[in-house]
Write a structure and sequence with these properties.
One of its GO terms (molecular function) is glycerol-3-phosphate dehydrogenase (quinone) activity. It contains 13 helices and 20 strands. By secondary structure, the protein is α+β, with helices and mostly antiparallel strands.
């Protein structure tokens, strides 16, 4: 295929609209099967739903109640797959479920956990067990019994970026801050018109189009493709708060509320606890979603009913909200709307296919991508078979454990502060060595911007990971926004203006 950008619109096998987890997952899978792939995202990778999650790779214990056995079985099996693919950003996590007698009988929870332990393959993760809480428990004194089970934690925005890198390393073209303004079928191809953030326009052609626009999936079909959407989308808002660490220990808590909803309290970045999520119908612009005062009170109330340490609004250091674009199954209760995904293929003989993705969750993105490719295979008989189950994501190659990597980095670079080595191991895995190429001393990392962020890392993120703004770096690539002062953040903004003025990002690997 001719990869020089000629005035004539290039023809790709697959064009993907949307740079959230489903879009990048499909792009990576397709590129690895030998398809030429173009992906566009109107904002930053993972800027919306995919970075606003509870950051869990989990089977979905509560989906058992809604009898979503297929989804739970698939999600449970995926935990082990993702632990092996990305050991730097996915880690096992024990969950404590305090038992509240007025909610569900203990035998029912035990039965659910037995099912959870055995429904999917479980090699690395320990089984569930019953617990008794003593005087030293961080929970309220009247909570004396509970259960413990395993799931996993993930850095959600990094999972998206790593899949985009995996796609690029297999030849895909990834264009962030590039909006698809229209697409139409003509002579067996999609003709796609795009607009970059700087106002410049480009056009491409593609043999198939994937609509992975998340909360915008139905709007994209109606407004940009001028077609009827096959399914309705319900936007369900989920909000989270970050507070100083609630309890000692590495375990998370899953709290059952009187309304039968659950709220997680998860250890986060060593010093904090992440608390969420809520479930409420959302009707505005998905890009403008923000936590409401009612949601804030709801989360604080649930936590305060369970923990001895009482929180108030003054304890909230940061909050975020996102909308989950769930397939409308006409359920009355937002928390009962299916978390499963639906793929809708629109293809008439001789016409280029359109595959639209409705719903889905972080945990099952890889299976969703395989299912999407299975639907598109008839148009690409040359495509290779499934391959993503065992391939490590960038940074997950040759990695034993994080601690072994930290040790190796510190012994090779005696001057490297352990805190930086540890943070890099968690973010970049074995790609940390790339950051240190040709570096002989601390001064070679450039200017220290604060909280262990040096300009060398900023340059790496702009060159290799599509970072453009301070927000991309502080909140999605590194999470250092929680650690840096306003002055330090302003200096980063200034540095980006000087060294990385906004220009269309280089797409080369």
């Amino acid at each position: 295929m001719n990869h020089n950008h000629s005035p004539i619109a290039e023809v790709y096998d697959l064009a993907v609209v949307g740079g959230g987890i489903n879009g990048v997952g499909i792009a990576a899978d397709a590129a690895g099967r030998g398809l030429s792939v173009f992906l566009c995202e109107k904002d930053d990778l993972a800027q919306h739903t995919s970075s606003a999650s509870s950051k869990l790779i989990h089977g979905g214990l509560r989906y058992l109640e809604h009898r979503e056995f297929r989804l739970v079985r698939e999600a449970l099996a995926e935990r082990e797959v993702l632990l092996a693919k990305a050991p730097h950003i996915v880690k096992p996590l024990r969950f404590i479920l305090p038992h509240r007698p007025h909610l569900r009988p203990a035998w029912m929870i035990r039965a659910g956990l037995f099912l959870y332990d055995h429904l999917g393959k479980r090699k690395r993760l320990p089984a569930s067990r019953s617990l008794r809480f003593g005087a030293g428990s961080p929970l309220q004194a009247e909570i004396t019994r509970g259960f413990e089970y395993s799931d996993c934690w993930v850095d959600d925005a990094r999972l998206v970026v790593l899949n985009a890198m995996a796609a690029r390393e297999r030849g895909a073209h990834i264009h962030t801050r590039t909006r698809c303004v229209s697409a139409r079928r003509s002579k067996g191809l999609w003709h796609i018109h795009l607009e970059r953030a700087d106002g410049s326009l480009l056009s491409i052609r593609a043999r198939a189009l994937v609509n992975a626009a998340g909360p915008w999936v139905a709007r994209f079909i109606k407004q940009d493709l001028k077609q009827q959407a096959p399914y309705g989308i319900r936007l369900i808002q989920g909000s989270h708060i970050i507070v100083p660490r609630l309890h000692d220990g590495e375990q998370a808590y899953i709290l059952q509320n009187e309304d039968r909803r659950i709220v997680f309290a998860i250890p986060y970045l060593e010093r904090f606890s992440l608390i969420g999520t809520t479930d409420r119908e959302y009707h505005g612009d998905p890009a403008a979603v923000a936590i409401t005062p009612e949601e804030t009170r709801y989360l604080l109330d649930v936590v305060n009913r369970h923990f001895k340490r009482q929180l108030s609004e003054q304890d909230i250091l940061h909050s975020y909200a996102g909308v989950r674009p769930l397939c409308d199954d006409e359920s009355a209760d937002p928390s009962a709307v299916t978390r499963d995904y639906t793929l809708s293929l629109s293809a008439h003989p001789g016409a280029a296919p359109l595959l639209s993705v409705f719903g889905g969750k972080l945990t099952t993105y890889r299976k969703l991508a395989e299912a999407a490719m299975a639907q598109l295979t008839p148009w690409f008989p040359f495509a290779k078979g499934p391959w993503t189950a065992t391939a490590p994501l960038p940074g997950g190659e040759q990695m034993d454990t994080r601690s072994a990597l930290v040790e190796a980095l510190c012994s090779s670079f005696g001057w490297l502060p352990t805190a930086i080595a540890r943070r890099w191991a968690n973010l970049y895995g074995s790609r940390s060595w790339h950051l240190l190429r040709g570096v002989r001393e601390l001064a070679d990392l450039g200017e220290h911007l604060g909280a262990g962020l040096y300009t060398r890392e900023v340059d790496y993120l702009c060159q290799e990971e599509w970072a453009v703004s301070a927000e991309d770096i502080l909140w999605r690539r590194t999470k250092l926004g929680l650690f840096m002062s306003a002055g330090q953040q302003a200096r980063l903004v200034q540095y980006l203006k000087q060294e990385h003025p906004r220009r269309p990002r280089a797409n080369a690997a």
